[in-house]
Design brief:
The chain is of the alpha+beta class. Among the domains are: 31-130, Phosphorylase Kinase, domain 1; 134-218 and 250-349, Transferase(Phosphotransferase) domain 1 (Transferase(Phosphotransferase), domain 1), CATH 1.10.510.10; 429-632, Beta-Lactamase (2-Layer Sandwich), CATH 3.30.450.20. It has 22 helices and 27 strands. The longest helix is centred in the middle third of the chain and has 59 residues, at 392-450.
Length: 727
């Protein structure tokens, strides 16, 4: 709907409270003739009726686009959140579908997982997603402000560093979304949430835009184009974005977003900087008294100054400099990326020099005093006692030493940041595998419970060695045997006969397509975009997934790709990946174990499969080879890396880069997992046990740089030649 001139004049006269969260909107076009399936690009029968599976339990809240309910998923027996589009929301259907599609493609621990797009009996679309119980950042900021200076103040939960740690997880999510080509465009405290266990989520991707799409704001002319202004509406109940909004929330909006030109990742960075300002000061980054002031402040990129310290807390000049840089009016003056922004913020948290405010000599010395007070004071006493003997040359040498020391600190910070980035990319693979495994587990259960018994050619290991093997069978170097990528192999425990389990094997006939697709998607490849020969080439060359499989309680295992090497006593129910996951739930990363087919060592991710009554049906799994893990541990950006390790939370060595190419015997190997080693560096083991996020340890002529994973309680360690980096 377009605002008339009279309505526009009324908006200019609106009260300050009404204008705090004014949102500028532009119509997405006429979607009245389109239905949900058409907008989602799906067939009509792909959109399932909501009431057939989900029972609404309670209403959690209401936003501009609809209501959110807690619901019970009758099929999986779990609680979910259901967002139902309001029938009164204008231009809501297209945006609702877009939010579902964009969010579903962002597989990240700080983005709420989407389960599906359904439709109510009344024809309204409904989005099902993970149910998060917690508070928004807006509520968290108010809570921290209220307890500051009181006996209820908890330094770890309410303190400045604690707030920054929460904020950094938001940065991780946005950095990831930018790597996937998605700009959020409406980042504000109300769209950020902290779960019951401290987990952080970025919500409301309804006005997100893909980087390869044209700027949709340009058509509306921005906030300043009064004559072409469309859908200016007020929001009276807090920090909610108006339905149909395409630009965001003015209090946190970047100037280029306000004028509708060149909106990109740095626009999200600006909004993040505004949110950080509010988290540090407990005050809004912009106070807007009327529409005229809004039109003056937002396009000009004006942000309020840092207020005086509130009670016992101050905002350091280094933090102020970081916020100032992130919220610079000119995007070219901001950080190169959100990742660079968060890296600088992490330097501050670790007590290191920040790029936004480089140390001068005084600050550099003071930083060292804070870190090593005893050593510095002893040095100072020595210097004072020898002051009379110090010559001009000595003074020059001292200043030069300070410069070298400052350079050393910057080099170490850069090394830590690079290892952190490597871990971030490794984490993305681990989370991607977990998502694929959940799909395999769900598909297996559905097929076992509902699929008809349809005969097909069952391939067992002996068939691959016989006179009539599958046509596509080929020798594959990574498996050191022949394999078929068009088929799965069915392996039976020694005490199981095919006639006893044949019907279940027939029911799982469609699993070969699910497992093949998972192998391709682990490499971020959509099989629908390739012809079969291209996909086969990729699978033969290797994807992160080494094996994909489902083992059942009756002793049947379906494995992809089909392979021929199995010991005669192979029983899937006795393998480490099966035994260690009984009575558990969800995706679980297990201990590294030797592959029974002799290809090497494998890192498994497994998920138990239960029926509706909670009875165990089996265990699904995706294995990554140890060589792939070692490749993910490689850090080519750092020169002089001698060796890398993965350590567990007890400081034990899970994998060493020196183990690449190590093979396992063709046997059950006693069904044991890989023995763990000891690095023998107590300081590093202490960091592993304490949960230190990242840092470094000096060991003789080397520096051990480390960073912690989010998906698992592990740390990646790189042994770097200190001399090569002048350390």
């Amino acid at each position: 709907m377009n605002t008339t001139n009279d309505e526009f004049e009324k908006t200019l006269d609106a009260s300050p409270g009404e204008l705090e969260e004014v949102t500028v909107a532009r119509a997405l076009g006429d979607t009245s003739s389109k239905n949900l399936a058409e907008l989602a690009g799906a067939s009509a029968d792909a959109i399932r009726p909501l009431e057939g599976r989900f029972a609404l339990v309670s209403r959690l809240g209401q936003g501009g686009m609809g209501e959110v309910f807690a619901a019970r998923d009758g099929m999986l027996n779990r609680e979910v959140a259901v967002k139902v589009l309001s029938s009164e929301a204008e231009v809501g259907l297209a945006r609702f579908v877009r939010e579902a599609q964009v969010t579903a493609q962002l597989s990240h621990p700080n983005v709420i997982p989407v389960y599906g797009l359904e439709e109510t009996n009344q024809g309204s679309p409904a989005l099902t997603m993970k149910l998060i119980r917690g508070i928004t950042f807006a509520e968290y900021i108010k809570q921290c402000s209220a307890v500051l200076g009181t006996s209820d103040y908890d330094h770890e939960r309410h303190g400045q560093i604690g707030r920054i740690e929460h904020f950094l997880r938001v940065c991780d999510a946005i950095s990831y979304s930018h790597s996937r080509g998605v700009i959020h465009r409406d980042l504000k405290p109300d769209n950020l949430m902290i779960g019951a266990y401290g987990e952080v989520y970025v919500m409301d991707w309804g006005i997100a835009r893909l980087l390869d799409e044209p700027d949709d704001e340009s058509a509306s002319g921005g906030l300043e184009a009064k004559a072409g202004l469309a859908d200016i509406s007020t929001v009276n109940d807090g920090m909610k974005t108006q339905v149909g909004a395409m630009m965001g929330t003015p209090r946190y909006m970047s100037p280029e977003q306000a004028i509708g030109k060149n909106v990109g990742p740095k626009s999200d960075q600006f909004s993040l900087g505004m949110v950080l300002f509010e988290m540090l000061t407990f005050t809004a980054p912009r106070e807007i008294e009327n529409m005229s002031e809004l039109l003056d402040k937002v396009p000009a990129g004006i942000r309020d100054s840092f207020p005086k310290a509130k009670q016992s807390e101050t905002v350091s000049l280094a933090l102020q400099a970081i916020v100032d840089r992130a919220t610079s009016k000119d995007p070219s003056d901001r950080y190169a990326s959100v990742q660079s922004f968060s890296d600088d913020l992490r330097r501050y948290v670790h007590g290191e020099e920040v790029h936004a405010r480089p140390d001068n000599l005084v600050r550099s010395v003071w930083r060292r005093v804070q870190r090593h007070p005893v050593a510095v004071m002893l040095t100072l006493l020595i210097v004072i006692s020898m002051a009379a003997a110090i010559s001009t040359i000595s003074l020059y040498r001292g200043l030069e030493a300070e410069r070298i020391s400052s350079t050393r600190g910057q080099t170490l910070a850069d090394l830590v940041a690079t290892v952190n980035q490597r871990v971030h990319e490794f984490d993305s693979l681990l989370f991607r595998v977990e998502g694929l495994l959940e799909g395999i587990s769900t598909s297996s259960r559905e097929q076992l419970e509902h699929a008809p018994v349809e005969p097909y050619r069952i391939i067992e290991p002996a068939d691959l060695k016989g006179a009539n093997p599958p046509e596509d069978i080929v020798e594959v170097q990574r498996y050191q045997q022949r394999a078929s990528f068009d088929h799965c192999v069915v392996v039976l425990a020694p005490d199981v006969k095919m006639p006893e389990v044949q019907d279940q094997v027939f029911q799982l006939g469609g699993l070969q397509y699910v497992l093949r697709d998972a192998a391709l998607r682990s490499a971020r490849i959509d099989a629908s975009e390739l012809d079969k020969s291209q996909a086969d080439t990729i699978l033969r060359e290797g994807t992160p997934i080494h094996w994909a499989y489902v083992g059942l309680e009756n002793g049947v295992m379906i494995n992809y790709p089909a392979n021929e090497k199995y010991p005669p006593d192979y029983d899937p129910r006795k393998r480490p990946w099966y035994v260690s996951n009984l009575s558990k739930h969800g995706a679980i990363w297990g201990d590294i174990y030797p592959d029974a087919s002799g290809t090497g060592y494998l890192m498994p991710c497994n998920q138990p499969i239960y029926d509706r009554a909670g009875k165990l049906l089996g265990v699904a799994g995706l294995d990554i080879s140890m060589d792939t893990v070692i490749d993910e541990m490689d850090i080519p950006e750092i020169a002089g890396v001698k060796e890398t390790w993965l350590l567990d939370d007890a400081g034990r060595v899970l994998v060493s880069s020196e183990e690449k190419g190590r093979k396992s015997a063709l046997s059950m190997s006693g069904n044991k997992t890989k023995a763990l080693g000891v690095l023998g560096i107590p300081e590093l083991e202490t960091h592993a046990r304490k949960g230190t996020t990242s840092g470094f340890v000096v060991d003789d002529s080397d520096v051990l740089v480390f960073a912690r994973f989010k998906a698992l309680p592990w740390i990646l360690v790189a042994r770097v030649d200190a001399l090569l980096h002048d350390l």
